[in-house]
TrEMBL record:
<keyword id="KW-0249">Electron transport</keyword>
<keyword id="KW-0812">Transmembrane</keyword>
<feature type="domain" description="4Fe-4S ferredoxin-type">
    <location>
        <begin position="252"/>
        <end position="280"/>
    </location>
</feature>
<keyword id="KW-0472">Membrane</keyword>
<dbReference type="GO" id="GO:0051539">
    <property type="term" value="F:4 iron, 4 sulfur cluster binding"/>
</dbReference>
<dbReference type="GO" id="GO:0046872">
    <property type="term" value="F:metal ion binding"/>
</dbReference>
<dbReference type="Pfam" id="PF13746">
    <property type="entry name" value="Fer4_18"/>
</dbReference>
<dbReference type="GO" id="GO:0005886">
    <property type="term" value="C:plasma membrane"/>
</dbReference>
<dbReference type="InterPro" id="IPR051684">
    <property type="entry name" value="Electron_Trans/Redox"/>
</dbReference>
<keyword id="KW-0411">Iron-sulfur</keyword>
<feature type="transmembrane region" description="Helical">
    <location>
        <begin position="155"/>
        <end position="172"/>
    </location>
</feature>
<keyword id="KW-0408">Iron</keyword>
<feature type="transmembrane region" description="Helical">
    <location>
        <begin position="329"/>
        <end position="349"/>
    </location>
</feature>
<feature type="transmembrane region" description="Helical">
    <location>
        <begin position="36"/>
        <end position="53"/>
    </location>
</feature>
<feature type="transmembrane region" description="Helical">
    <location>
        <begin position="82"/>
        <end position="102"/>
    </location>
</feature>
<dbReference type="InterPro" id="IPR017900">
    <property type="entry name" value="4Fe4S_Fe_S_CS"/>
</dbReference>
<keyword id="KW-0004">4Fe-4S</keyword>
Amino acid sequence: MKFDIKEEDLIIKPYKHSGPIYIREQKGHFQRIRRYLSWFLMLIFVGLPWLSYQGQQAILFDVAHQQFRIFGATFLPQDFMLLAWLFMAGAFALFFVTNWLGRVWCGFICPQTVWMLMFTWVEHKVEGTRNQRIKMDKGGWNLSKTRKKLTKHSIWLLMSLLTATSFMAYFVPVSTLYADMFTLQWSGLVSFWVFLFTLCTYGNAGFLREKMCTVACPYSRFQSVMFDKDTLVVSYNSLRGEQRGRRKRKDDPSKLGLGDCVDCNLCVEVCPAGIDIRNGLQYECINCGLCIDACDQTMDKFGYKNGLISYKSEHQMAGKLTKPFRLKLVGYAVLTGVVIATMAVWLSLRTPLEVSVIRDRNVLYRLDYLGIVENPYTLSIINKTQQTLSYNIGLNGFYGANLVAPSDIKIAAGQMLLVPVTITADQHNLKHKVHKVTFVVSSVEDSTIQLEKTSYFYSE
């Protein structure tokens, strides 16, 4: 078959849009997956702050008191190692998924995409189809256009406000946040952050949209580093589709010298980034699969086989097999597993108790007329549980010494208490000038909560 391809058709046009992108609403397999997944993620995002555990908000990042509660565990700034592990696990998991399935994070899970398509859905319901929106925007202002624009932007602002308050509910107790909202008693700080997040959501999802993905987000720029010839990406089968051209449903494309692409342009109209996937892989493509749904819909109407646009690797497009177990993919998977396992071990060994031993640098020791050496200490004890607990202080590793310390020390949940203690010993029984001592702080209510801290006893 001989294709009559012009030289200008071989030139890939750069991504450029001088105006807004009018996204056509599309139904199909990948759109259903994204819609169900978006609803699931939205319910988690909005609902998590409302969960209660042991009479308290289950998840609360209390920045003011430097306490981060996640169900039964309380994390303090000293536990920020966990945050490092989470970031590392997330990064390697993202590398693994990207090398395997391309930019599915961007197309299906990224908050920018979820909110952008949610705002677009509202736009479609209020202002009409893509062609109706284009026609209305080109026309002059009238009562109908004003009403639709006000309705759309009012819904967008309401959604943005709900997004902002839902986000703030992770940092301010949810009951206090909404009670103060309805009674107009928000503090200046809370009001500022809610206003800022509302404005950012409204601007990003309503106006910037694809520009956040193509201009601001760095992920689109370095994603190709994680790709290889076995990575599944949205691909157009040019061998099957070209020469593209319009035709009637009953026409035989082989007699017309045409491929399967009917040049309906739906793949461009449904694309959130406004690109033409037929020009090849482009960094603006977020692998959302909307062009696949649109193309399959057209293929069904013409009685052609689906898959002209599909998720395929470069090897599959060339008629080869994709290697499921390749070095880069396995390496990312192993690193992700190692980081998650390390984080799990760290959490299992973590004790919900923090103890620090503070010495008086001005007076290392005191010696009385009876030959008794006395060393003063201050123990900083932090209760990292969510209940008030009592603690006892013991001494290990220094036989013949006496510990003077209070018993049943009550410390509220997440609170720190400074406890002065003293160790005394007979100078005649001391063989060395410096002795290692170990303080043992243990919970009265829970014997598994125990922590040892080492310090030194000076006699001269």
